[in-house]
């Protein structure tokens, strides 16, 4: 539960808000590289933290993200001509390069133009294009880009996409960090009872013979709906650890990373599985882009995996050409009440769409002043405290947590089945080793 | 004409408004029974007096109307699972019964849950399902349901539906109480002259040979466009009596009931005809639901009558699956100017749609500060004074008129042709007898 | 560049704004005559300077533009019956003539009605129907209608239409007065270079053999992108003169008229060409109607010219049945990026749609507080100063410039190729003679 003031502080990211100033210090994914496929191609509009921009890839293949209006008379540069390393306004031909410098004022005499150009630049974001993503930073002297593991693998071992979420960024992040809901929101239904979802089918929670670990895990998620949370702190953020009762006195751990200010690495994977990361980027305060990254540290992402991601599976949504989910607020996510009665807990197929529906359902901006939190909400509580502290630090002129500490982002998330007696320290070291988080603190 | 303050008081019904507090004491029709057709069926969203709710019919067939958000983290219960006598949130499985009691908190340990549940209830309305309608009251200790005659007849003698009106409730009520407009809004046109509308045809206002009373009545309505109003008061509201000149020195009386706070019984019926009632329930302050009840005290409503009502006739509109009229604000009620020139006064067929169009046309919320009222507006004036007085009483902590006096609603409306010399007292007693209204006051 | 206060003053035209009071003194085109084609035809809704009205052509063929609500109970007169020289409310039959006089109150007794009628009139605009346009003035004692040349030619020598613009009136006017943008916004592209647009084709800017003046002109526009502006003042407004380098030391002059408060006569024509005028009429502060007039002082407008205007060419847009351009804000003007790369500077065909796109792109209301103006913006600067001065005069109770001086509007615009040594005084007198503007001031 937050005060109304803290809820406002947490959720507002416009240019004049405390959280807005905080976010503007960190790198943000602004676009997928494939949204600007070619040099001198069409410029596109975008909105980032409530601010409008125009993005273009120039003749040299470098991306510019600049304020959208020509300083001459305010015509919108989306309509501009992307030519010869710059964007030219259609009204009177003023031209700007990807750094926002004004490079031509053709409707003035040469001496007037020469005098005016230095004062006619426009705001441009700092850009780093890496890992199929165009990253942006609002500072002219940005910190190094965080060393996310997904950025460090070869292109063939990575798949990236994005999807639109029709609510405030923070409640969407909270859904991503809250693995307790897996036992409900993502459950199946079988003969009227909650069931695990196996290979698209469903099954009551009965231990199978020769049941593989990946199937047993679904059963444990269903059977233990009140996991015990421990939150560990490290230099890039938090490792949220949820313990559930497994078979034979073992403990099933799901461990999620929260990385400042708006990233998560999701659990659900054992070492053989693909890793997954999300970044929630405010479009405005009532919607956000969710960037979705899948990678494997050792093997390529196959063509068939890519095709499944594109069609929508797991954390990847089925989206239209504008990356807006086909199931959305306006159509109640095509909720099927008969399926809700007989097959899935929600009547909405796929994890991404289930997460999306419930986060949207909290309102455009969730009201956190009347919550009744329980122990499974510990990760959510610590996330809020961590980002609000970063915000406080920025307001006090201090460097906020994780900013500029690129190596600290070299962490992993994932699942582990612990034998009786294994401590969380043992678990984290056994599962993650050097990827456990720098200066991780065990309570 | 009202002051701006009184217009505001009359029209605003949100939870923190004087009229809102007043309305919340009386019973309101919330839904048609057939909108929740089966136990454990899909929950539905609704809005009542500007407040959002979720309604569901539980395993025992009882209806709950509860606030829409789970108190845990604010997820919307519309997406919830309606199962085993309660609505279960899809996020973490919290469950609520139809009284709003929290009956399960599965993501907490049993002792934490047991402690938390009593403080985790949600607001629920009091419910009375009767006469094909789900009636709701905002009080935990509601008064008895008014004894409307429509509620007292066997099911087969009754037909109920509803329709959406795209303006404030009060101006729509005023249209229902204002029988003077019948001479214009509902008139026909024949050879360029105002005409009566007979059996779907039209006819100039010439007395026919062997003309039945039901046809003569249409002619009197057209011929006398300035009826004389007398308003009588009784314990449930007002009886509005409009006198028009009929043939042979007789007087044609149309008598309408206004019942607090938002019901009317319409005129237009002789004893052999079906009776009609409306209730105007604010959806928000710029739209309302109009519940429409037809019944006959002595005979069944036939199948063909039901089909005509469903298709839209008289006070029943032609509506879509969501009970929104096919002719609506957005399409100018499919107004046909050629028909307006040659056939009907408005170019819009059917009384319901004519009433709807003209009420909407007064604005989303009619401005009553610049009216020029005449004697035929007496009923409208008295309606405003009566409901504003009830509002004043509630604000002063007094019981408002009619509240809890269930028998006082046992009244009728209808038409009568009086011989020369018959007084209004004679007329009312002859026409309504014991249904004249308790403690009715003749001036 | 304007202060925020002056930008507000320039752009707001509602009834209680300084510019609104100023505009309400001048005549405005309200509708095309053909929008009310016949006596006693359907009334239509319109909005003028943010105010709603209903317009109708009465039995005698005269037009009334009246406030939209019946004073009795506020029903909207759009639904009214247009019959026997008046508009009759459908609710209770009150009737109003084209001057707003209440002529019938049929739901009151004759003596009450007679007493009430004089106090039951509604606001009506003064009307002058001339030149295929219904002109309106908010004053009961309006000045004479300006003697635009288009009004003075026979019907057959004139064509008038209108189009909707989705931005504030003032920035649209500025686009009309700013001939400097012709060298960019309206240019073609040929082999990657700016090119002239000839007969729908394109051509690099190379002097052709036996090139006619009309083609050379396109070349000069492209070649000289920084024209020199001189602004001359006369009794009806401003003559904006832009000089570009032509061949053989000649000077190519384009001369535009700005006439108070919201008219322009466009350049681009030599004496043999059709003349063109525009009026920008605020619908509200975020959109306007642009009336478009074409005429020739000496010859008829041919049928094929009329058909081309109707389909959209030059200053006439391709519009739908409601006069809304097919290319519009919502569809990004169907911008074709491939055409922008290879054929036209904007990727949007036709001058009207190019102007429309760039004006809209400045925002719903352009922000003029951060501009960087150059010499080619002189006409825009002088326009703002002129209309703001008129506004100041009105606020001070003085007669604003041009108001009532009907003859002063007898001016022309157009192009001229001056020999070396010809002064602007020579140019204006040679080109326009008696149509140069009364009391024109040469600097």
Description:
The structure is a homotrimer of 443-residue chains. By secondary structure, the first copy, chain A, is of the alpha+beta class. Helices cover 22% and strands 24% of the residues of chain A. Chain A has helices at 4-11, 18-23, 110-116, 149-152, 169-177, 213-223, 303-311, 337-342, 351-361, 378-395, 424-432, and strands spanning 28-32, 44-48, 51-57, 63-66, 81-82, 87-88, 95-96, 102-104, 126-130, 133-137, 158-165, 188-190, 193-195, 228-234, 237-245, 251-259, 263-265, 275-284, 287-295, 414-418. In chain A, strand 6 and strand 7 form a beta hairpin. The radius of gyration of chain A is 23 Å and the shape is elongated. The relative contact order of chain A is 0.15. Chains in contact: A-B, A-C, B-C. Chain A binds chain B through residues 174, 180-181, 183-185, 192, 225-226, 335, 337, 340-341, 345-346, 354, 357-358, 361-363, 366-368, 370-377, 380, and chain B through 40-42, 69, 71-76, 78-79, 81, 83, 89-93, 105-109, 112, 116, 119-120.
What average pLDDT do the residues of chain A reach? 96
Query: Could you give the distance between the termini of chain A?
Result: 24 Å
Q: Assess the beta-strand content of chain A as a share of residues.
A: 15-25%
User: Which stretches of chain A of 5+ consecutive residues score pLDDT under 50?
Assistant: none
Outline the secondary-structure elements.
3 copies of one chain form a homotrimer.
Chain A: H1 4-11, H2 18-23, E1 28-32, E2 44-48, E3 51-57, E4 63-66, E5 81-82, E6 87-88, E7 95-96, E8 102-104, H3 110-116, E9 126-130, E10 133-137, H4 149-152, E11 158-165, H5 169-177, E12 188-190, E13 193-195, H6 213-223, E14 228-234, E15 237-245, E16 251-259, E17 263-265, E18 275-284, E19 287-295, H7 303-311, H8 337-342, H9 351-361, H10 378-395, E20 414-418, H11 424-432
Antiparallel strand pairs in A: 1-10, 2-3, 3-4, 5-6, 6-7, 7-8, 9-10, 11-19, 12-13, 14-15, 15-16, 16-17, 16-20, 17-18, 18-19
């Amino acid at each position: 539960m937050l005060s109304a003031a803290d809820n406002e502080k947490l959720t507002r990211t416009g240019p004049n808000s405390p959280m807005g100033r905080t976010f503007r210090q960190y790198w943000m994914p602004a676009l997928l590289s494939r949204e600007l496929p070619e040099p001198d191609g069409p410029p596109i509009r975008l909105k980032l933290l409530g601010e409008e921009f125009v993005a273009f890839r120039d003749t040299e293949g470098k991306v510019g993200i600049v304020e959208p209006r020509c300083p001459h008379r305010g015509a919108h540069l989306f309509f501009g001509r992307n030519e010869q390393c710059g964007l030219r306004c259609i009204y009177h031909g003023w031209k700007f390069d990807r750094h926002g410098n004004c490079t031509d004022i053709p409707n003035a005499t040469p001496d007037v133009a020469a005098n005016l150009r230095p004062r006619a630049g426009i705001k441009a974001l700092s850009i780093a294009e890496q890992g199929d993503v165009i990253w942006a930073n609002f500072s002219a002297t940005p910190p190094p880009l965080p060393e996310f593991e997904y950025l460090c693998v070869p292109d063939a071992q990575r798949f990236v996409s994005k999807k639109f979420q029709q609510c405030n960024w923070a409640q969407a992040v909270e859904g991503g960090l809250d693995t307790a809901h897996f036992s409900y929101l993502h459950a199946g239904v079988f003969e009227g009872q909650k069931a695990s979802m196996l290979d698209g089918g469903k099954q009551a929670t009965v231990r199978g013979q020769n049941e593989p670990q990946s199937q047993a895990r679904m059963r444990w998620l269903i059977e233990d709906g009140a996991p015990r949370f421990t939150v560990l702190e490290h230099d890039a953020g938090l490792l949220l650890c949820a313990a559930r009762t497994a078979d034979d006195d073992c403990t099933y751990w799901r461990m999620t990373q929260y990385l400042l200010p708006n990233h998560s690495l999701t659990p659900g994977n054992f070492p053989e599985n693909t890793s997954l990361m999300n970044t929630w980027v405010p479009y405005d305060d009532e919607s956000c882009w969710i960037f979705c990254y899948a990678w494997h540290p050792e093997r390529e992402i196959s063509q068939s995996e890519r095709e499944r991601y594109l069609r929508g599976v797991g954390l990847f949504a089925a989206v239209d050409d504008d990356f807006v989910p086909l199931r959305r607020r306006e159509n109640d996510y095509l909720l099927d009440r008969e399926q809700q009665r007989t097959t899935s807990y929600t009547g909405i197929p796929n994890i991404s769409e289930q997460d999306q529906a419930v986060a949207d359902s909290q309102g455009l901006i969730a009201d956190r002043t009347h919550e009744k939190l329980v122990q499974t909400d510990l990760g959510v509580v610590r996330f809020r405290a961590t980002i609000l502290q970063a915000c406080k630090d920025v307001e006090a002129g201090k460097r906020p947590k994780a900013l500029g500490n690129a190596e600290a982002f070299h962490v992993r998330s994932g699942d582990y089945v612990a034998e009786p007696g294994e401590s969380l320290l043992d678990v984290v070291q056994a599962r993650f080793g050097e990827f456990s988080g720098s200066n991780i603190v065990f309570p």
